[in-house]
Amino acid sequence: MALEQVWRERLAANQAPETREDWLFPPGTVLKPAAVLLPLVRRTEGYAVVFTQRAAHLSVHAGQISFPGGRQDPGDGDLWTTALRETHEEIGVPPDAVESLGCLEPIVSITGFHVTPYAGFLPPDFPYRINAGEVATLFEVPLDHLLDPLSHRIDMREIPGRLPYPVHHYAFDGHDIWGMTGHILHRFLETIGA
User: Fold this and answer.
1) How many CA atoms lie within 13 A of 144 on its CB side?
2) How far is the C-alpha of 55 from the C-alpha of 134, rounded, in Å?
3) pTM for the whole thing?
4) In CATH, 2-15+29-192 is 3.20.20.70
5) How many CB atoms lie within 10 A of CB 94?
6) How far is CA 150 from CA 144, 191, 192, in A?
7) Which residues contact 137 (CB under 8 A, 6 or more apart)?
8) How far is residue 156's CA from residue 77's CA, in Å, rounded to a whole number?
9) Could you say which DSSP state residue 31 is in?
10) Cα 26 from Cα 41, distance rounded (Å)
11) Is the pLDDT of residue 56 over 70?
């Protein structure tokens, strides 16, 4: 638990004013607020991160690895509520079962979302109820595996007229964890100093 307290302190210290990434969108662009939950589980052998694989029939990011989350609804009181609601909708974990760890500074996605990532612990033996309309499957990755430098690689991408930017990839059991999910995961691992 002492390690978790260090993580909480580092996440709290990492908070910065919300900034837009102007290399991606020009000033004045209206971005859509969204939130995701980076779910953690305490296991006897160590911590694990929970990922979902998006359903193959979805029109956006079909089949990609993701964290539970999505666009803020008008009825959501705040973005933490959005992350909890989406987690409940996608994998069946009720909001009161999630233990907050903290949040990372917001990230702007190339699809025009202003995403606030939160981290939190799920109950270790919860019987997930996957929403097949959104999620194909769910799997856990040991935190120690994600910290292994051999599991991580960086590709540089370019958007015409903009600076090149890094795309983080984490490999696990045939899965490629990349894009926004890889970016959030990388920021989390850097922030907690693991």
Assistant:
1) 5
2) 5
3) 0.90
4) no
5) 11
6) 11, 20, 19
7) 52, 53, 130
8) 37
9) P
10) 39
11) no
